[in-house]
Every structure is written in structure tokens, then in C-alpha cells.
Amino acid sequence: MDLRSGHAFWPIQNGLLRVYPPLAREERCEVAVVGGGITGALVAYHLVQAGLETVVLDRRDVGMGSTAASTAVLQYEIDTHLTDLVGRVGEEHAVRAYRLCLEAVDKLAALVGTLDDPCSLQRRPSLYLASSPRHVAALRAEAEARRRIGIAVEFLGRGELAERYGVRAPGALRSQTAAEADAYRLTHRLLEAAEARGLRVYDRTEVTGWSYPGAGVRLATDRGYGVSARAMVFASGYETQAYLRQRLAVLRNTYAFVSEPLEPGALWPERCLVWETARPYLYVRTTPDHRVIVGGADDPYRTLPLRERRIPRKERRLLRRFGELFPGVALEPAFAWAGTFGETKDGLAYIGESPEVPRAYFALGYGGNGITYSLVAAEILRDLLLGRDNPDRHVFRFDR
């Protein structure tokens, strides 16, 4: 499945950072990770740090699937409001999901701080805008729900929002904990750091099946060689659905463009990450070279040609909506693209084991904050593969 169309910005800006060899011999390890995007990189990094011999396989070049299309908006805020999530999964799990994502933003920033490359990670506040006056009451209720569980959030009215940020909306929640990054670059740097500790990476190597000789698992590949492991981890994102009968997510397209660089003074104060209560929602961030990335206009995935044809029209729609919210900022689009992602019934990831596939673990960070979910998944799966219990696995279990 082609996960993206158009001209994704990160590979254009960075180029091909690293080429790994394809699998050319039989391999043995403790854990085989299927997927070399940001999720696979975070999982592999944590496994290697814990002393587990690990191999990563990807059918593309590393980071060239949905990671290349990611806008890398790092937020604790889940697509489902805390007030709604409590009704869907119960208060204990809803609160824990929000707190885990809050912690994940800080942990990601700390992790990047240990690498030789900052990967364009910048801490930013976020603004969650009311798309309509009808949504203001729900935003106020959401603010109160978050405060009750210890998450600091500020409600801004229309006047204060316009005065402080130049944004035109009926109201907003301002959160201090958020960040932006270059997920494509971060993927490569994580794999390089793990490689220095023994990780082995093979790209352009597709897993075609698996079998269970003895107490382990053997992954067959299109290269004619296989990888024998104690366990396997699927970090292959939205393509993982092909391996499971259980329907975990609905596939949708999201669209984005990046602008030409602006003068720094033309951008709004604090360069807040911005998103809104409408579904589908617009999301906005900046880049270190003073560009603006605008995404959204999601629609159901039908076919690849249809997704590609829609990019110009979606770009115009995103530009128009951005202008409504930021009347004082004029953008000239430079590159536009589309990517396919999965949307779950409750906005939560799926992490852990499925009864359908023995000796396998899954790190499926579906939803709008997939990278923070990937960090959560890396920690949970590390513990499970070390034989340690992690109670957070119940929050993201397959049978919820």
C-alpha cells in the first residue's frame, strides 16, 4: 500500500539520510521489529537500550512510509475529549491515557536531547480552537475535566485570543505541553543510536509470512532469507491491518502543505501548535526555517488515484481555512502532499498482544497523536518482552 502521495516536505528537505542493506543472509535475534518508521525506530531503540538483541525490517527505505508524510505535531491531547473518553473506556483508563501522552511529550524531548542531532524538536504551547460558538461550552467543560486530573490548561476567550495571538476564533484552550519535530530525521537518528549498541537494520526487505519452528518465530522475506527470533513486533502502522481479521481502524486520508519561508516577525507569538474542535480538524505548526505547515481536510480512503487527484483542491481548502483563522498571516504554498492514516473507535492506540498472532506484539499508534503513542508503546512492549508486567497495557488492549 502506498501510504502517501504528492511532495512530502521532510524527504525533500533532508534527502536520503541513510541507506541500509537488504537482508542477504539468515538472521537470528531476540526480537524482530517489522517497520522502520518512527514507531519501529522508537521501539527498537528502547529494546536495544534494555539489552535485547533486535533486528528491524522494512519493505521501503527507512522512514519513507507514513513517517515521511507526518507533520510531527507532538501533543498529549487525544482526538477524543477527556470528557467523552471517560464515557467510552471508563475514568481510570481515560485519565491514564491522557497522563501517559502528557508524559510522552516530555520523554520524547528528553530522548532527543541525548542524540547528536536535535531533529528540529522545539517545545511549543498548543491552542485548541473552538471552530464554532456552539463548541465553547464543551471546551470549558474539557478544561475543567483536565484541571481536575492535574493537567494545566487555560481557557482564552475570543478577545484574548485575538489580542495575544492574532487568531480569529470564539475561544480556545491553551496548553503548555506540546512540541514539533522532524519525524523523518528523528527516525534515522534513533536507528543510528541503536545501531551503535548492536541493532541491525535491513530495508527494502518485505516480510512475506512467518512460521513457528520450536519455541520461536521465523519471519520469511521476499529476499529469500529469514529472521528467527523469540518474538516479533509489528510497528508497520496502517499496513498492519492486512495481518489481522479484527478491524482496528478506519482508513482515512489527511492532506497537508508547507509554505514558503516567512519573515520571523510575520508568525504568531510563541509559534503555538494549533488545531480545532471541528471534525475533521485543521492543524498548524511552524518549522525552524519559518515555514508554516497546515494539515487536515481528512476524508475516507478510497483509492490511491483519487487521493492524488484531490491534493490541489485540498490545498486550496486548507489555505482558505488558515486565512480565516489567521487573517494577518499570508501564506504561499510550496509543497503539498497526502497520507493515509487509521482512526480508531475511541481515539486510542492498540498496543500489546492479539490472540490472532502468537508470539507477536503490536505497536499501532493510530490517531492524531501517533508519535506520542509510539513512545508509550515502546515502553510497554519493552517491559512485556523483558517479562515485566506493565499495567498500562490494559488501557490499549485489543479486546476493549
How many structural units, i.e. domains? Answer: 2
Oligomeric form:
single chain
CATH topology of the largest domain: FAD/NAD(P)-binding domain
Please give the share of residues in helix: 25-40%
List SSEs in N-to-C order: EHEEHEHEHHEHEHEHEEEEEEEEEHEEEH
Structural classification? alpha/beta
Tally of helical segments: 10
Describe the main β-sheet briefly: 10 strands, mixed
Summarize the structure.
This protein has 400 residues and is an alpha/beta fold.
Describe this structure as you would to a colleague.
The chain has 2 domains: 182 residues, FAD/NAD(P)-binding domain, CATH 3.50.50.60; 151 residues, D-Amino Acid Oxidase, subunit A, domain 2 (D-Amino Acid Oxidase, Chain A, domain 2, 2-Layer Sandwich), CATH 3.30.9. The two termini are 28 Å apart. By secondary structure, the protein is an alpha/beta fold. It is 31% helix and 26% strand. A hairpin with a 7-residue loop joins strand 19 and strand 20.
Topology diagram in text:
Elements: E1 4-6, H1 9-14, E2 27-28, E3 31-34, H2 38-49, E4 54-57, H3 66-69, E5 73-75, H4 82-89, H5 91-112, E6 122-129, H6 136-148, E7 154-157, H7 158-165, E8 171-180, H8 183-195, E9 200-202, E10 207-211, E11 217-221, E12 226-229, E13 231-234, E14 250-259, E15 273-276, E16 283-286, E17 292-300, H9 304-325, E18 333-343, E19 350-352, E20 360-364, H10 370-385
Parallel strand pairs: 2-12, 3-4, 3-13, 4-9, 6-15, 13-20
Antiparallel strand pairs: 1-18, 5-8, 6-8, 7-8, 10-11, 11-12, 14-17, 14-18, 15-16, 16-17, 19-20
EC number: 1.4.3.-
Keywords: Oxidoreductase
Domain FAD dependent oxidoreductase: 31-384
